[in-house]
């Protein structure tokens, strides 16, 4: 096999040599065979039968096959021990290498004998950067941008290549490198003066098998001073985008396409001209189609200028109401990007009813790795269990078993494109993510995107072993802490599916009424008698009716609705009895106290590990946990006081509430 000097195959060779050297201290002898992309490690004679077998194996482009035989010398890769790594392409070979290195890093007694063949379930596995060219990161909690500073691309930065390597190691194959809220300077990324730099970025990511995309400003023809309109049906606008696409692909032949946020939160879009989202997306899709480019059109569209007194308007309905009627009208290279929930990455939401409801339209689910509403990488909140619930959700839209993960994998509807995307949580902090433990979310997203059937605890254990050492007390405790962290964070923040009880714009500290009377349309409707939003068909906003009958009926009654989503779908009295046997008000009190107490116990257990973790990480995580405890206590006291004053019902256990 002849490798491209800067391609994924060459990266596979480098990573395998460097990885084995780092993890074991050995200097491996590698053999690269002619024909399909195969690497052998250890005894060539012992490997020959496996080599012949894997050489003939049919594999898709990103798939890999891995065969390990330990032989008489154990895992020393000498004597009769061997490993054979085969990829369906150079990209598949790179995935095989990273899988092999994960095995070495997580197996306490060394790698075991293994025969594994894997291919990614989702075709598109994408990261969205919300980086701005001034060097800031919107909703960034780990420092500034690794890509930009002072309105230029940091091509000299070694961290960009490190990041590409990091993403490839967990199976990511696409990245958009600028904020979906595209400002004036970022608009220029698609214009000639900056395309040379964009090409160099694309080369860095391409060397690890990752395709580069850009977020674009829908009003770019106006913003760049060339036209007076951005009307998608205007022939001059169509020619402008066609010419722009030609210029981009002439400079960056491997360019992936555009990510677009339009007609959302005051961003420009086709609504300005009386057009719809299909008109807008198809304009860009037609320009990109000759080059194989894609348009990822975000469905986060809602009226952000609402009157809080109008209870008939429901932000949760918006994406479905806007996009469902357009099914079948989008070009084949348009992919709708749908947030996992109908609101905005809250700690608890139902799955968006739009996912799977457009059988004639490509769509991907979007998650947020950046912890905007889930602790901002100050508080530990391992989000993989939350994402698993979304991916495992059965929509019933094509009969039982129409789960989100099967839809995302293109197994339910035969569409050209499918997959998952997520908002990145990295920045230029030394530890990448602000909180050492927040790295687990980026790792976990990549692993789930590759295989959504993986168990959340399996992912937590894998990351903990790779990070703190296989079989160590620190790894065991961190795995346990990660798995507890999402329910614990939920337990001291907004209760039973309400969400949004945060300081406006800042989104970290508690403010129960912060958004209650704002224009953004996010309310809990708490009064002296009860709390929650009625989203039923009979008496509420009708949102529950956007689901298939099985889920509509499940959510439609307080008796059948899962407790964790009760207040998302129903306005109930504080004395309503949950399935746990507690009243709503007592659940609020108990869970706030329990959440803060659990964080306190984490600190005690982490202190016991002093000396078993390097000083820098031990001190950093301890400081973060102490800050989380302060935050949890504040949430506990503010929320409990607020609802005691609303309800007038005391805590059954007589604990201190600041009345």
From TrEMBL:
Residue span, Glycosyl hydrolase family 67 C-terminal domain: 433-655
Glycosyl hydrolase family 67 catalytic domain residues: 112-432
Keyword Methyltransferase: no
Lineage: superkingdom: Bacteria
Organism this protein belongs to: Saccharibacillus alkalitolerans
Pfam families in alphabetical order: Glyco_hydro_67C, Glyco_hydro_67M
Signal peptide region: none
Protein name (record): Alpha-glucuronidase
Keyword entries, A-Z: Hydrolase
